[in-house]
Amino acid sequence: MKITLDATLFANPPSAIQLSAIAGYALDGRHRIHISDEGHPDFLNWLAGRTAQEREEWELLLGFGAALDAREPARREVHIVAGGAQNWGQNPPAIGIDVALGVLSRPFRIYLENGMNDKAFILGVASDEYRKRLLKLENDGFLEFANGGGITTLLQQIQPIVNPRGVDWHRTATLIDSDALQPGAPSHQSLAVLNFCAQHSLWCHQLQRRSIENYLPREILRGWAYTGKAPQKRKVFEAFVGMSSSQREHYNMKTGFQGDEDRQGPNCGTLYHNIVGATRASLMNGFGSHIAKLYSSEAISQDHLRRDGSENELRSLVTEILAMAR
Fold this sequence. Notes:
The chain is an alpha/beta fold.
């Protein structure tokens, strides 16, 4: 996060312990420090009163923060001002240093419908470099994958975060399935979360495809299908790859057409009306409820995603998470 210290804060500066704590977050790479106006007399007078070593350290911290932001800009920013006021409606939020110390110690939290599978999905589709960064952020306590417990429960969990808007709002994001049975037709529940987040300026990525399972590359599914002696798995796979890209992107990967029999209405459309006979029979029960576990294998490459047509969306998803978490 970008921490901007208002220059007027130094007219009656915070304690050395508080400023040291702020500086510590920058030293360990958790946040970047900036001064709103490095030429302001209040800041210059304060800096002049430091020891030579302290001045050098602050100059290094400020230079380091500026260099990081030039290379990899932080998406989140807080403005630390004099007094104890909190204004979360301002952009960036303006808060006192006492509140800021509590905010800056919290991890960035991304709510997922399924904490285990969705986390494996994010890590599985990330490049090797970005996967290492995400894992380091998590291991260092800077990033947290939160289990929303399903789309309905997820909405219930994020509602208190923005009512009223406060500390947790600034460090929260969501990732949701579109649950769309056809292109451009997300489920009502998915739209409810997306619209709620938009209304309250909470970052939310709604997958363009139906669910995380629909991003499994065909090469990975082929390995699943042809491992062992299970002809039914091969039939499902061969029928699946014979469908159009839109059909594959919105197919019920877990439970197949059988799992969608109770879902009727305008969102269903006619996407699969040409799937008949033996092909339809092979696709009736899907790939099974545990197919998302393939994301844990770390076998997915960026070449797989490029050939599958999902690379741009997924690269943007991962880079945005990294930008918000740093």
